[in-house]
Each structure stands twice: as structure tokens, then as C-alpha cells.
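Section 4.2 – Deliverable D4.2 (structural model, holo form)

The reporting period included a commitment to supply a predicted holo structure for the target in complex with xanthosine-5'-monophosphate. Inputs used:
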Amino acid sequence: MFLDKFSVQKDKILIIDFGSQVTKLIARRIRELSVYCEVITLKELTNIKKFEKIKGIIFSGGPSSVTDKSYPKISSEIFKKNIPILGICYGLQLIAKMYGGKIKKQNIKREFGKVTIFSKTKSILTKGFFKRNESNVWMSHQDAVVKLPKHFINISYSVNSKFTAIQHKTKNIYGIQFHPEVTHTERGSKLIKNFVINICKIKKNWFVGLEKKRIIKNLKNSIGKEKVICALSGGVDSSVVAMLINKAIKKNLICIMVDTGLLRKNEFKDTFKMFKKKYKLNVKLINSKKIFYNRLNNIIDPEKKRKIIGNLFIKIFEKEALKIKNVKFLAQGTLYPDIIESRSSTGSKTSKIKSHHNVGGLPKKMKFKLIEPLKEFFKDEVRNLGKSLGLSNIIIKKHPFPGPGLAIRILGKVTEEKIKILQEADDIFIQSLIENKLYDKIWQAYAALLPIKTVGVMGDSRTFEYTCLLRAVTSEDGMTAAKYNFSNDFLTYISNKIINRVSGINRVVYDITSKPPSTIELE
Ligand code: XMP
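Output (C-alpha cells):
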């Protein structure tokens, strides 16, 4: 049954996912209030038999239109349960339609991006949300409510939309056209808090430190005296998984570290030392550098690189895992966003931009039972878990790093020589960020090697060497990103430092594009 999907038996806010790109941000905002919530599909909703623990329901936005012949619908039974409901964007339009309002496709009055809305009627939902009766919000809609549904009142409007927030006269049913979950909406968190805490009246019940105890207890019970293996990369997720399971079953957890030769300078060695010596974990080290380098020889196509690395990794991991006798479980660092994204939500068709390689997911044919202790958590919650497990800040605060590693940051052919050059440049960049207290302000930073050599002059000699590209972005979840604004002085300093110290590079450029249109990685 759905409520048993996780072992969390708590009061909760349910978010029904109608396919918006930002649905998971609604869940994040609610978790930030220390309130437990889950994102489910319409189909999962129909399987729920008991509603006692559900204290509030949010209908997310989505790409569908209630003006079309066919669109995702919800049973009107949901309105009879006396549970507060908030509809966002498509969610608002669905509620309005079901209550007899009129929704129309707008060709000229569409609203995308920042829009100012104005307060019309005081509401518990928007208490403290408006400043001088105005608020700047983030909108993304073509359909709009043009006639208020029966029994509803209008809370706010914009220049182009008559109804940007509405509420039922007597029931706790609300709808908003804008997205309060997106940071571009001013005081959006305040509105979500009003709904969750003041309208749904749910008690704070989600504290990662306490959840840690529950997870460790569950792990102990479900693993017993059996052996577990996990792939340890030194990234936050796999590190927290290893620490949690180690707390539960000690030496019966065997961590396998595969050295692909594609990590940052010293990263593999340092991670191995840390987990083996400092945290006393049972770590098995596999040196596979040469195999990876051989297989990548002459490969230029980014997708090919990704596939080769992903498949090879799994093969090596599988082979090593099978050498260890009597292993029953395989642990993976699957996170809650992975669970949300892997389900088919109504009508959301996101196109594949890059094939992501993660340790997770692939070794299904291995005859192990899966353990996914992080599957209820968001990344920031995993970091907090790591902190409460005593994990070093080096790991907790580490910027994200792609599974295929430096191979996708060396454009074109990957060679051992280029890896060494890039490792040096990247290390200088990252260490300088740390020294200048910039590292924690940036979501992700790295150096890449471009496949172009240019002419330079060093001393009195002509040089003909590689170009190093630096990228540093701010982001919330990697879905969108903006360049970090370094001072000119810092950029000059870092460029000089790299060129002076790394032989093989004679030009440094800084990537100023945002995502979209660019992606964070180059390949
Ligand atoms: P893009 O380049 O798609 O990256 O804007 C978004 C985030 O995902 C990371 N990334 C990966 N992470 N395996 C991973 O675990 C991968 O194959 C992979 N490719 C990209 C990227 O570093 C950024 O944080």
C-alpha cells in the first residue's frame, strides 16, 4: 500500500504531481518547515484508502490544460474529506473548473516569469505575503481563470489575470495561479507556511537528526546478520549511505571503491584514507585506471563516453561484488527526487538531454536485495544527516560531481596526460575558492579542458597549449543555474595562478552562460 512505500508513518501533507518541472520544490519548501510531505501521482492517490494521516493536499502545476478534451482529472470525493486543499497553477485551474468556473487559453495575456500581483481580499493564506498590497511572483501559464467558480472569492489579481488567488467561502480550498515554491516568488515560503502550518494545522514532525535513529533501527532489523555491499565514491550520497549502514551493522558492510582514474586530484586516495582510517569502515579498493583509460582511447562523442564509463563501472563493481561470499544486500544512495522523477507522472514528458550515469539503478540483474536508506530525503537533508553522523565537512559540503568524472570535462579525446593537466588546474581553482572563502557560496565549480590549443607567449618563447575553461554556478538543485559573479581581481589571480603552475595550459576562460540555455557540465 502507498503509505507503506516508505517506513514513515507520520502526519503528512500530500502533493499530487500533475507533472510540473518544479513539483519537487513544493516538497522541499514544506520539509524546510520541518513538516513531513510526500509527492504522489494521481494513480497513487486512487489507491489510498485511509486519509487520517493526511492533513493537507496540494495539487501541483503541470503542462496539461483543462480547456482540452482530455486532461488529468481528480475525483470530486477529494473535496468531501474536509482536508485543506491548495491548487497551484494547473491545480488552481482544475479546482476552478470542477467548481463551475471558466478557464480560457490566453493568447495575448499569457504570463511567464516575473509578474506583480495585487491584494484584493484579506486571507489567512496570504497573511504577510503582500507588502503594501503587492507581491512579485513567478508565473508560467497560458490558461487563466476568467470566471470565478461558484462559492469562491477572489484574493488577488494582476494586470493580465483577474484571478491570481482564490479561496472557497466556507471550505479550506484555495487556488493560486503563481508558483510560491520557486525562489523568484517573493515571500513564497511564507504563503506555503500559511497553508501548511496555519490552515492544515499540522505539527512539525520532520527532524533529520531523529529520522537518523529510525533509519538505523530499521536497517538493523531488516539486515540482521547478513552482509551488505555498497559502491563508495566519496560523494555525499554514497558516503552518508555507508556511514548509516556502518552504524547499523559495522563490519558486515563492505564498501567497494573503484578507482576509475577520472576523479579530481588526490580525491580517491583521500576518500579511501578517510573512510578506512578515520571512520574505520570496511573498504575494498579496486584499481581500474588502466582499463578506463584504454576504453576511452580515441572516444570523442560525449554520450559514448558516458555509456562506456557507466557500463564498465557496473561490470567491475559486479565482478568484485561477486567475489565476496554470502552477500545478500546492495545499498544505493537513491534520493527522494530520484524516486519522484522515475515515476511517470501525468503527462510530464521531459526530453533526455544527457544520459546520467549513477552507480544506482543499473545492477538490477545482480541477485541482491536493494537497500535505499536515503530514498525519503532531499539532498540538503542528506547533508544534515551526514552532519549528524559526524561526517567531515569535506564530504558534506562537497560540490556535486558527475558520475563519468573528468572524462566529460575533457572535451574530445581523453588521455592520461590531459587528465593530469586538468587535475592540476582544477585543484588550483578549487583550493583558491576554499582559501578565499568562496567555495561554500558556490553550488558547483570546476575546471575543464577545451580541445583547442592556442598560441601564447611565456618568457620570450612562443607556446601552443590547451585552453582551460572555468565554470562556477549558483543553483538550488542543478535544474537551473546562474554564473557566479567573481570579482575581476579574483579572475585575474586565478588565471595567472593556473598558467604559472600548470604546464600544458596557456589560456584561461570563464564560462558566463546560465542554465538554461547551457547545461552545467560541458558534455
Ligand atoms: P547538467 O550538466 O545536466 O548537470 O546541467 C546537472 C547536475 O548533474 C550533474 N551531472 C551528473 N551527476 N552523473 C551524476 O551523478 C552524471 O552522469 C551527471 N551528469 C551531470 C552535474 O555535475 C550537475 O551537478
